[in-house]
Design brief:
The chain has two domains: 2-54; 68-177, 3-Layer(aba) Sandwich (Rossmann fold), CATH 3.40.50. It has 178 residues and is of the alpha/beta class. It is built from five helices and five strands. The longest helix is centred in the first third of the chain and has 26 residues, at 2-27. The chain has helices at residues 2-27, 38-54, 106-113, 138-152, 165-177; strands at residues 68-74, 77-82, 90-94, 117-123, 156-160. Strands 1-2-4-3-5 form a five-stranded mixed sheet, sandwiched between helices. Helix 3 (106-113) links the parallel strand 3 and strand 4. This is Polyhydroxyalkanoate depolymerase.
Length: 178
Amino acid sequence: MWYLLHEASQVAFSPARMIADLTKLACTHSLNPVTYTPGGRALVASCELFERTTRAYPKPTFNLPASERVVWQQPFCRVIAFGPPSNKPKVLIVAPMSGHYATLLRGTVAAFLDSHRVFITDWSDAKHVPLSEGQFDLSDYVDYCRAMFEALGPDLHVMAVCQPAVPVLAAIALMEAE
């Protein structure tokens, strides 16, 4: 439901964003006397704020000094490995899937690169996954975590950042119970 509202708001605000851009352009033109007034500057700031808060941001890159390769992939997630295989301790960073990109954790990945083989989850935007792949709920989330842990092998350290803490703990508990 929330995703539908988000998508609807992106479409609905598109004309308003264009109007805000045109207003900003007009109010910052050097020949417009409004440009030099406090009201004009406030209007420009309001237009910039509106545009930035309603913009659909593209997915940024990690832009780290290490190679990236996909080592595990399913419809709703993939695991990216950084750097060449090594004997360093392995750490999987399980990023939130709550509408943010794993690249927001680039600083965390960078901090681990010198001392660990780093892996990170890169969750797919559900709107890009075909309905034929089925739904994705909490038990699927836990199953994905278990599959990732098994694919990355023994002696794996796992760091869940915020939201995935519960599914990660559930996956570990289920694996321990077996």
